[in-house]
Amino acid sequence: MPPETTSLVDDLVVTGVVPSSGKLILGDNQDLLLEAALVVDLARAGRVTVTGAGVDTRVHVVDAQPVAHPVLREALAWLHATTGPPGAQDLAELEAAGWVTRRVVGWIADRQGSGATLSGAFQGFKARDRVRAHLLSTGTLVARDRRVLGMRLLRRYRVHPPERREDLVVDLREVLLGEREPDQRTGPLLGLLGVANLFASSLNGAAHLARWAPRPRREEASERAHQLARTDGDVDGVRAVIEAVEVIIDERNEKRANSGS
User: Fold this and answer.
1) Domain that holds residue 158
2) Residue 2 belongs to a domain
3) Does the residue 3 lie in any domain?
4) How far is CA 161 from the centre of its chain?
5) Distance separating alpha carbons of residues 14 and 160, to the nearest angstrom
6) Where is this protein primarily located (predicted)?
7) How many domains does the chain have?
8) Which long-range contacts (CB under 8 A, 24 or more apart) does 67-70 make?
9) Which CATH number do you get for residue 184?
10) Which of 2-6, 57-61, 187-191, 216-220 is the least confident region?
11) Per-residue pLDDT tens digits for 169-190
12) What is the H or E stretch that residue 219 is in?
């Protein structure tokens, strides 16, 4: 059974730790994946809603009441401060300043009330650092530092207890290979990893994930993960978030390919 405090964003980081090296690797789009996981967690908690599709997918705060998870609480406060409407009292005080200020206030309210795009919702939030610090503080991640040639400091991690990751990987592998049905924990996690193409090849920066499936079945596993991204039923906007991630990654890859040609 997963810990009571587990979240998609926690699971994503735990999944990305490579037991043999201690590196934390989630491919080239790990920041986007973590930010998407934050949105899914907040949507499931009833704090945000997701509208639109693709690059036009937007995140709206509908309930600014704090949640228990520290990083989700910080993420919600960040979204509310940057995209949520200002408080009624604040507006009244600003409007009392005169007609010009009311115009400015109206512009601010319109802009803030429109929500944020998925790619821009957490710009400057440093989700990776916050989630990692949270897991270190709870003891889920244990860090060890070593120096290379007496100069460069390398930080490596292990998951504690090891079963926290091992049990999750077993569940994910079984879903990938069609040996069990996905649930609310494994489905979105595999969907995010799948649209980032982390199961397709061992040459994508996350070889430890590709190796979950035997080499002859990696293409099958990758396709299965993509299917999961499209069959979640869009409960709490999960599918919309995952599809938006896929569109953003595809655009990034196209730009990279064009710049290299």
Assistant:
1) 8-260
2) no
3) no
4) 23
5) 10
6) Golgi
7) 1
8) 67/42, 68/5, 69/5, 69/7, 69/41, 70/134
9) 1.10.3630
10) 2-6
11) 999 999 999 999 999 899 999 9
12) helix 218-230
